[in-house]
Protein backbone atom coordinates (compact mmCIF):
# COMPACT_ATOMS: atom_id res chain seq x y z
CA UNK A 1 0.00 0.00 0.00
CA UNK A 2 1.16 3.50 -0.73
CA UNK A 3 0.70 4.47 2.94
CA UNK A 4 3.54 2.13 3.98
CA UNK A 5 5.40 1.02 0.87
CA UNK A 6 9.18 0.69 0.56
CA UNK A 7 10.19 0.45 -3.11
CA UNK A 8 13.85 -0.21 -2.36
CA UNK A 9 13.01 -3.23 -0.21
CA UNK A 10 10.68 -4.71 -2.82
CA UNK A 11 13.22 -4.29 -5.64
CA UNK A 12 15.92 -5.86 -3.48
CA UNK A 13 13.63 -8.81 -2.73
CA UNK A 14 12.77 -9.32 -6.42
CA UNK A 15 16.45 -9.17 -7.32
CA UNK A 16 17.39 -11.69 -4.61
CA UNK A 17 14.50 -14.04 -5.42
CA UNK A 18 14.34 -14.67 -9.20
CA UNK A 19 11.13 -16.70 -8.81
CA UNK A 20 9.27 -13.91 -6.99
CA UNK A 21 6.55 -11.89 -8.69
CA UNK A 22 4.77 -8.85 -7.22
CA UNK A 23 1.01 -8.44 -7.59
CA UNK A 24 -0.40 -5.15 -6.32
CA UNK A 25 -2.47 -2.07 -7.09
CA UNK A 26 -1.63 0.26 -10.00
CA UNK A 27 -0.51 2.96 -7.54
CA UNK A 28 2.08 0.69 -5.95
CA UNK A 29 3.29 -0.72 -9.27
CA UNK A 30 3.74 2.81 -10.62
CA UNK A 31 5.93 3.73 -7.67
CA UNK A 32 7.94 0.54 -8.13
CA UNK A 33 8.50 1.28 -11.82
CA UNK A 34 9.66 4.80 -11.01
CA UNK A 35 12.11 3.40 -8.46
CA UNK A 36 13.37 0.83 -10.97
CA UNK A 37 13.85 3.55 -13.61
CA UNK A 38 15.86 5.57 -11.11
CA UNK A 39 18.33 2.73 -10.68
CA UNK A 40 18.63 2.27 -14.43
CA UNK A 41 19.38 5.96 -14.90
CA UNK A 42 22.32 5.72 -12.54
CA UNK A 43 20.69 6.48 -9.22
CA UNK A 44 21.67 3.86 -6.66
CA UNK A 45 19.68 3.20 -3.50
CA UNK A 46 21.18 3.92 -0.08
CA UNK A 47 21.75 0.20 0.34
CA UNK A 48 23.91 0.16 -2.79
CA UNK A 49 21.34 -1.94 -4.67
CA UNK A 50 20.88 -1.40 -8.37
CA UNK A 51 18.65 -3.43 -10.61
CA UNK A 52 17.60 -4.05 -14.20
CA UNK A 53 14.28 -5.63 -13.25
CA UNK A 54 11.47 -5.22 -15.77
CA UNK A 55 7.70 -5.32 -15.91
CA UNK A 56 7.71 -9.10 -16.32
CA UNK A 57 8.36 -9.25 -12.57
CA UNK A 58 5.18 -7.49 -11.46
CA UNK A 59 1.48 -7.27 -12.25
CA UNK A 60 -0.89 -4.37 -11.59
CA UNK A 61 -4.46 -5.31 -10.70
CA UNK A 62 -7.03 -2.57 -11.20
CA UNK A 63 -10.34 -3.31 -9.48
CA UNK A 64 -13.38 -1.32 -8.41
CA UNK A 65 -14.21 -1.45 -4.71
CA UNK A 66 -15.85 -4.78 -3.71
CA UNK A 67 -15.07 -6.40 -7.08
CA UNK A 68 -12.73 -9.34 -7.67
CA UNK A 69 -10.77 -11.16 -10.34
CA UNK A 70 -8.68 -14.30 -10.77
CA UNK A 71 -5.22 -14.62 -12.29
CA UNK A 72 -2.52 -17.27 -12.55
CA UNK A 73 0.92 -16.14 -11.44
CA UNK A 74 3.93 -18.44 -11.80
CA UNK A 75 1.57 -21.41 -11.86
CA UNK A 76 -0.31 -20.32 -8.73
CA UNK A 77 -4.00 -19.41 -8.87
CA UNK A 78 -4.78 -16.11 -7.16
CA UNK A 79 -8.21 -14.70 -6.47
CA UNK A 80 -7.95 -10.99 -5.75
CA UNK A 81 -10.65 -9.01 -3.98
CA UNK A 82 -10.63 -5.25 -3.55
CA UNK A 83 -11.92 -4.50 -0.07
CA UNK A 84 -12.39 -1.38 2.00
CA UNK A 85 -9.16 -0.40 3.77
CA UNK A 86 -9.32 -0.24 7.55
CA UNK A 87 -9.44 3.21 9.13
CA UNK A 88 -11.32 6.32 8.00
CA UNK A 89 -8.05 8.11 7.19
CA UNK A 90 -7.13 5.35 4.71
CA UNK A 91 -10.50 4.78 3.04
CA UNK A 92 -9.08 5.99 -0.29
CA UNK A 93 -6.12 3.58 -0.17
CA UNK A 94 -6.55 0.55 -2.43
CA UNK A 95 -6.56 -2.67 -0.43
CA UNK A 96 -6.31 -6.06 -2.10
CA UNK A 97 -7.21 -9.29 -0.35
CA UNK A 98 -5.55 -12.36 -1.84
CA UNK A 99 -6.82 -15.93 -1.88
CA UNK A 100 -3.97 -18.29 -2.78
CA UNK A 101 -4.99 -21.68 -4.09
CA UNK A 102 -2.70 -24.68 -4.26
CA UNK A 103 -3.31 -28.42 -4.45
CA UNK A 104 -2.89 -28.76 -0.68
CA UNK A 105 -4.16 -25.48 0.81
CA UNK A 106 -6.41 -22.48 0.27
CA UNK A 107 -5.10 -19.41 2.10
CA UNK A 108 -6.68 -15.95 2.40
CA UNK A 109 -4.50 -12.94 3.21
CA UNK A 110 -6.76 -10.03 4.16
CA UNK A 111 -4.20 -7.25 3.81
CA UNK A 112 -5.59 -4.19 5.60
CA UNK A 113 -9.25 -5.10 5.02
CA UNK A 114 -11.55 -3.31 7.42
CA UNK A 115 -13.39 -5.75 9.72
CA UNK A 116 -16.69 -4.81 8.10
CA UNK A 117 -19.40 -7.18 6.91
CA UNK A 118 -19.59 -5.52 3.49
CA UNK A 119 -16.03 -6.69 2.77
CA UNK A 120 -16.90 -10.37 3.21
CA UNK A 121 -20.54 -10.83 2.22
CA UNK A 122 -20.90 -14.03 0.18
CA UNK A 123 -17.16 -14.34 -0.18
CA UNK A 124 -16.96 -18.10 0.36
CA UNK A 125 -19.28 -18.70 -2.58
CA UNK A 126 -17.00 -16.55 -4.73
CA UNK A 127 -13.93 -18.43 -3.54
CA UNK A 128 -15.65 -21.75 -4.22
CA UNK A 129 -13.85 -23.81 -1.60
CA UNK A 130 -13.32 -23.81 2.19
CA UNK A 131 -10.42 -21.80 3.59
CA UNK A 132 -7.66 -23.70 5.36
CA UNK A 133 -6.01 -20.58 6.72
CA UNK A 134 -6.82 -16.89 7.08
CA UNK A 135 -3.97 -14.43 7.66
CA UNK A 136 -5.29 -11.26 9.30
CA UNK A 137 -4.08 -8.17 11.13
CA UNK A 138 -4.13 -8.09 14.93
CA UNK A 139 -7.44 -6.14 15.28
CA UNK A 140 -9.19 -9.28 14.07
CA UNK A 141 -8.52 -10.92 17.43
CA UNK A 142 -9.01 -7.76 19.48
CA UNK A 143 -12.47 -6.68 18.33
CA UNK A 144 -15.38 -9.04 19.13
CA UNK A 145 -17.29 -8.16 15.94
CA UNK A 146 -14.15 -8.83 13.88
CA UNK A 147 -13.71 -12.26 15.49
CA UNK A 148 -17.33 -13.07 14.66
CA UNK A 149 -16.84 -11.97 11.04
CA UNK A 150 -13.93 -14.38 10.64
CA UNK A 151 -15.99 -17.24 12.05
CA UNK A 152 -19.23 -16.53 10.21
CA UNK A 153 -18.10 -15.19 6.83
CA UNK A 154 -14.68 -16.76 6.28
CA UNK A 155 -14.92 -19.87 8.48
CA UNK A 156 -11.28 -20.95 8.15
CA UNK A 157 -9.80 -24.06 9.69
CA UNK A 158 -7.24 -21.82 11.42
CA UNK A 159 -6.13 -18.21 11.80
CA UNK A 160 -2.69 -16.58 11.71
CA UNK A 161 -2.39 -13.06 13.12
CA UNK A 162 0.13 -10.51 11.86
CA UNK A 163 0.86 -6.77 11.58
CA UNK A 164 1.36 -6.11 15.29
CA UNK A 165 2.46 -2.56 16.20
CA UNK A 166 6.12 -1.72 16.66
CA UNK A 167 6.93 -3.04 20.15
CA UNK A 168 9.12 0.02 20.79
CA UNK A 169 6.53 2.58 19.69
CA UNK A 170 3.60 4.30 21.36
CA UNK A 171 1.12 1.93 19.72
CA UNK A 172 2.73 -1.12 21.37
CA UNK A 173 0.08 -1.10 24.08
CA UNK A 174 -2.51 -2.13 21.49
CA UNK A 175 -0.77 -5.50 21.21
CA UNK A 176 -1.41 -6.15 24.90
CA UNK A 177 -4.99 -4.95 24.57
CA UNK A 178 -5.53 -7.36 21.67
CA UNK A 179 -3.96 -10.27 23.55
CA UNK A 180 -6.01 -9.66 26.68
CA UNK A 181 -9.22 -9.43 24.68
CA UNK A 182 -8.43 -12.62 22.78
CA UNK A 183 -7.35 -14.51 25.91
CA UNK A 184 -10.93 -14.37 27.20
CA UNK A 185 -12.27 -16.34 24.21
CA UNK A 186 -9.24 -18.26 22.97
CA UNK A 187 -10.30 -21.66 24.27
CA UNK A 188 -13.60 -21.48 22.37
CA UNK A 189 -12.29 -19.86 19.20
CA UNK A 190 -10.59 -21.01 16.02
CA UNK A 191 -7.09 -22.50 16.33
CA UNK A 192 -4.97 -19.36 16.22
CA UNK A 193 -1.26 -18.52 16.10
CA UNK A 194 0.25 -15.07 16.65
CA UNK A 195 3.10 -14.27 14.25
CA UNK A 196 5.05 -11.62 16.14
CA UNK A 197 8.74 -12.47 15.86
CA UNK A 198 10.58 -11.91 12.58
CA UNK A 199 12.35 -15.06 11.41
CA UNK A 200 10.58 -17.33 13.87
CA UNK A 201 9.43 -20.72 12.57
CA UNK A 202 5.90 -21.49 13.73
CA UNK A 203 3.82 -24.65 13.33
CA UNK A 204 0.42 -23.58 12.14
CA UNK A 205 -2.50 -25.09 14.07
CA UNK A 206 -3.98 -26.80 11.03
CA UNK A 207 -7.21 -28.73 11.31
CA UNK A 208 -7.94 -31.64 8.99
CA UNK A 209 -11.44 -31.25 7.63
Search tags:
209 residues, globular, 21% strand, 9 strands, alpha/beta, two-stranded parallel sheet
Q: What is the element layout, followed by pairings?
A:
Layout: H1 7-16, E1 22-24, H2 26-40, E2 58-60, E3 68-73, E4 76-83, E5 95-101, E6 106-109, H3 117-120, H4 123-127, E7 133-137, H5 139-142, H6 144-154, E8 158-162, H7 173-183, E9 192-194
Parallel strand pairs: 1-2, 6-7, 7-8, 8-9
Antiparallel strand pairs: 3-4, 4-5, 5-6
Helix pairs in contact: 1-2
Explain how this protein is built.
The protein has helices spanning 7-16, 26-40, 117-120, 123-127, 139-142, 144-154, 173-183; strands at 22-24, 58-60, 68-73, 76-83, 95-101, 106-109, 133-137, 158-162, 192-194. It is built from seven helices and nine strands; from the N terminus they run αβαβββββααβααβαβ. The model has no long low-confidence stretch (mean pLDDT 89). The two termini are 34 Å apart. The radius of gyration is 18 Å and the shape is globular. α1 (7-16) packs across α2 (26-40). With 209 residues, it is an alpha/beta fold. β1 (22-24), α2 and β2 (58-60) form a beta-alpha-beta unit. Helices cover 29% and strands 21% of the residues. A seven-stranded mixed beta sheet has the order 3-4-5-6-7-8-9. It has a two-stranded parallel sheet with strand order 1-2.
Question: How would you summarize this macromolecular structure in one to three sentences?
Answer:
The protein has 209 residues and is of the alpha/beta class.
Amino acid sequence: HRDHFHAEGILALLEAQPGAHLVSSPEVIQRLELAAESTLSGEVFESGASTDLGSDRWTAVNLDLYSHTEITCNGVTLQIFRTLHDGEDYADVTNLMFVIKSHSMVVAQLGDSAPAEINFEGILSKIGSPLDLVIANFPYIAIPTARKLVESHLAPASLAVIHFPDPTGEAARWTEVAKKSFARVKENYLPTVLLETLGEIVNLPMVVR
